[in-house]
Design a protein that fits this description.
The complex is a heterodimer of chains A (449) and B (348). With 449 residues, chain A is mostly helical. Chain A has a domain of 183 residues. Helices cover 73% and strands 7% of the residues of chain A. A two-stranded antiparallel ribbon of chain A has the order 1-2. Chain B has a two-stranded antiparallel ribbon with strand order 1-2. Chain B starts with a helix and ends in an 11-residue tail after the last helix. The chains are: A mainly alpha (449), B mainly alpha (348).
Chain lengths: 449, 348
């Protein structure tokens, strides 16, 4: 294995594992604010306890997100030194701003939210929940700004030594790519949070315990989940797709498996891209739809991969195709399931419809898969570029770090993260088994002493 | 001028990281010795529980600031120190997770294991940070293209092609471990009470003697390994005030930690000053280099060579000042909220 591949694998592996945690904290952050707001308005102890329960889940997630997030910032320097040297003046800014504007805020108020409830007023405790939510969403914004500049570089100049220099701070932050991707990505995080909350509610009802809390979780999870499942498709997914089609035409051709330029281009629902023959094997396709989705008319011509030299095709083309289709397919399922669940909720039949509860419970891993597949679509679509159109991935990795040293740490991360995954599962399972009831908590505290 | 400002801003962020995360690393390193019973361990960990995560943020914020203000330094140092940095990451992960887990798992033997992981990870991190700083002071085998790669060790001697660890950087690592352990012990005298407070105060005395000895040893060793470290001091003799301040803060630590009339907060603040002046003295010793080369001064990564573009730095100064003012306010707010001794019963 060459060292370029190892550096790519290590970054991809560590960032994929990392993002399992923030997507839940960002989604859950919003839902906890919703729980705390109801609790504050109604004075309901039950909603407060529900918020406290999700606060504990949030805290475990947060710690795993923090510890797996630190490597991400380091790896720009350790594994992508030649890229970091040239790009630091631009993307170092949002990365540093994430630390300065988000992490301090988040850590300060999370400590207050978790440890301080007895020391502060109800209003201040509600406020600390809001600030934790705001902090995590600011953090997400700066990461998206960083990624968006690599996808769609704006507002830069090159210095004589080759380094990139920011020309306009605001144009960097308000990069249209960043705004579209942010809306799409944060909606995805809300979907994860909503599905997890609804799944825990469904689990409790199916087991026949914590029933009053289960209803709260289902209500909040299904309502938020239904709204987000539609917003993720339209307008955010639709707008993001159109923007990619106009700015990274080779990426959209590969995502859709469109090898040849076509008027009335079809959308392929299922199939296997075959790079050797330049076609889709076993296609199930609907004509004209792709042209319509991108250009608003079935007649429009969509550029196929044949318009681009082979060395500008995304390097992992089949994986890109599948990642995109998995994301889109699951997104359709989310909208369907949540519509049905919301209808049952409105008809007051959700809490007894066991088949729907089972469907909600078993669907909780799917948003994780969809969010991961979405990020794979974005980042594999950017290949073979590290900075789109400006710097190739092969020019950016740390060539002074040998393949042997890289593989050593990649294997180390794999082992360590396998252990973390196991521990995380145990911890979350225990919290869910313990439930939101205070009686259980007292019993455990006695047991611990 | 912008370069000079950013050099000191990054240095201050790193110093803030060392001073703040330093005491929770020190508490970790001492945990197994000082706090043997479960209530003592809970009290010791409760004293850092609400703040350790925020303290670690300084590392990230400082790293990010280094990345955009001095991209060449960031790229060169992070890839050159590849293996030790990865080990530092693994230790940070193990440490954070073991602390969090111990609050949730109530299975006796697992808790002992987690405390062990937490303590060892804390101690090793202190050693690695000290060794890293010593590597910067000694210099690294930079090539003309601005990069280098260091193995973990070679023949344990500083020279043109050393390893991360040699006898000089090991002294740096041990000094960091002793200084942060002392820092942590003094923090415990501020935040805890009863027998734990008393034991922490007793532990501080031998640690203090060790720190004094290692500080002197590291000073002599640094001058032996890289005599140029003294140039700035002789060119601007007024800056000898920095080593004088190091000595004064060491004396103050001893004075305020005596068991007859202990003044824990003052002793802890003296330890903060000690760490600050040690770092400032080290920075001034290499300035205007950021990373000296063992392969000839022409290969040094200097301030001007590593600096980002002027617009980047000017814009950065605006949001940085604004953001750090906010961040400082949060930090002050949190420490004020959790001021005073920890209650024995108050754990998460």
């Amino acid at each position: 294995m060459g060292s370029e591949l190892i550096h790519r694998l290590q970054f991809a592996f560590t960032v994929t594992f990392h993002y399992l945690f923030p997507q839940l904290t960002m989604g859950l952050g919003l839902l906890i604010v919703a729980l705390k707001t109801v609790a504050l308005k109604t004075g309901s102890e039950e909603w407060d306890r529900a918020a406290r329960f999700w606060g504990r889940i949030f805290a475990i997630n947060f710690v795993f997100g923090v510890v797996t997030g630190i490597p991400m910032e380091f790896e720009f320097g350790t594994n992508w030194a030649r890229f970091a040297r040239l790009s630091g003046g631009v993307i170092g800014q949002p990365l540093a701003m994430e630390g300065v504007f988000s992490f301090f805020l988040e850590s300060a108020f999370l400590g207050l939210f978790l440890y301080g409830e007895k020391r502060i007023s109800r209003l201040l405790h509600w406020f600390s929940a809001v600030m934790v939510f705001v902090g995590s969403w600011i953090s997400g914004f700066f990461i998206i700004v960083t990624d968006a500049w690599m996808q769609h570089p704006v507002a830069y100049a090159r210095l004589p030594n080759g380094q990139f220099e920011v020309l306009s701070f605001w144009r960097l932050l308000l990069n249209p790519w960043a705004l579209l991707q942010y809306a799409h990505n944060m909606t995805g995080a809300v979907i994860t949070g909503a599905f997890v909350m609804a799944a825990v509610g469904a689990f409790y009802l199916l087991e026949g315990r914590n029933q009053s809390y289960a209803r709260i979780f289902l209500k909040v999870g299904v309502i938020a989940g239904m709204i987000a499942s539609f917003v993720i498709i339209f307008p955010t997914g639709d707008a993001a797709g159109k923007y990619v089609a106009r700015n990274q035409p080779a990426a959209i051709a590969a995502m859709e498996g469109l090898f040849k330029s076509t008027t009335g281009a079809p959308i392929v629902i299922l199939g296997q891209p075959n790079e050797q023959t330049g076609q889709i094997d076993n296609p199930i396709a609907v004509n004209d739809v792709l042209s319509y989705l991108i250009y608003g008319t079935t007649r429009a011509e969509v550029e196929g991969l044949d318009q681009f030299p082979r060395d500008q095709w995304p390097t992992a083309l089949p994986l890109l195709f599948y990642a995109y289709h998995i994301m889109a397919g699951l997104g359709t399922w989310f909208a369907l399931l949540m519509t049905v669940a919301a209808f049952l909720l409105w008809r007051k039949r959700l809490y007894t419809a066991r088949w729907a509860l089972w469907a909600l419970l078993l669907s909780f891993p799917l948003p994780y898969i969809a969010n991961t597949a979405g990020w794979m679509t974005a980042e594999l679509g950017r290949q073979p570029w590290l900075i789109y159109g400006l710097m190739r991935t092969s020019a950016g990795y740390s060539n002074m770090v040998s393949a042997g040293n890289g593989l050593f740490t990649l294997l180390g991360f794999m082992g360590l993260y396998a252990l973390l995954g196991l521990l995380f599962t145990v911890l979350i399972y225990r919290e869910i088994a313990r439930g939101p009831e205070p009686a259980a908590a007292t019993a455990e505290a006695l047991h611990a002493d | 001028m912008l370069g000079f400002i950013w050099f000191w801003l990054v240095a201050i962020m790193i110093a803030a990281y060392v001073i703040l995360d330093g005491f929770d690393l020190g508490v970790g390193a001492l945990l197994l010795f000082l706090a043997r019973s479960e209530p003592d361990r809970r009290a010791a960990l409760a004293s850092i529980g609400p703040v350790w995560d925020g303290n670690e943020v300084w590392l990230l914020a400082g790293g990010g600031t280094l990345y955009f203000a001095f991209p060449l330094l960031y790229a060169s140092a992070f890839s050159g120190f590849y293996l030790p940095l990865m080990i530092v990451l693994w230790l940070l992960i193990l440490r954070g997770v073991s602390l969090e887990l111990r609050n949730h798992l109530d299975l006796g033997v697992w808790r002992a294991l987690l405390d062990g992981v937490f303590a060892w990870a804390s101690a090793l991190l202190a050693v690695f940070f000290g060794a890293a700083l010593a590597n910067v002071l000694r210099g690294v085998p930079l090539q003309p293209d601005g990069y280098f790669f260091l193995p973990l060790w070679t023949n344990w001697r500083p020279g043109a092609y050393p390893g991360i660890l040699d006898w000089y950087t090991v002294i740096g690592g041990l000094l960091a471990l002793a200084a942060l352990a002392l820092h942590g012990a003094l923090w415990l005298t501020v935040k805890t009470s009863g027998a734990l407070e008393r034991r922490a105060r007793q532990m501080a005395t031998p640690l203090w003697a060790l720190v004094v000895a290692l500080t002197a040893a590291s000073l002599v060793a640094t001058i032996a390994v890289r005599p140029a470290t003294l140039n700035n001091y002789f060119n601007h003799p007024v800056t000898f005030i920095v080593p004088a301040a190091v000595a004064a803060s060491l004396a103050a630590m001893w004075l305020y930690n005596r068991s007859q009339r202990p003044q824990p907060m003052k002793a802890f603040l003296a330890s903060c000053l000690y760490l600050f002046f040690m770092l400032a003295g080290a920075c001034w010793g290499v300035y205007p280099s950021l990373l000296p080369a063992t392969t000839g001064a022409a290969n040094d990564i200097t301030l001007t060579r590593a600096l980002s573009g002027p617009h980047t730095l000017a814009v950065g100064l605006v949001w940085w000042s604004f953001g750090m003012a906010l961040a400082t306010a949060y930090v002050v707010f949190v420490y004020a909220r959790f001021r005073g001794k920890v209650d024995a019963g108050e754990t998460h």
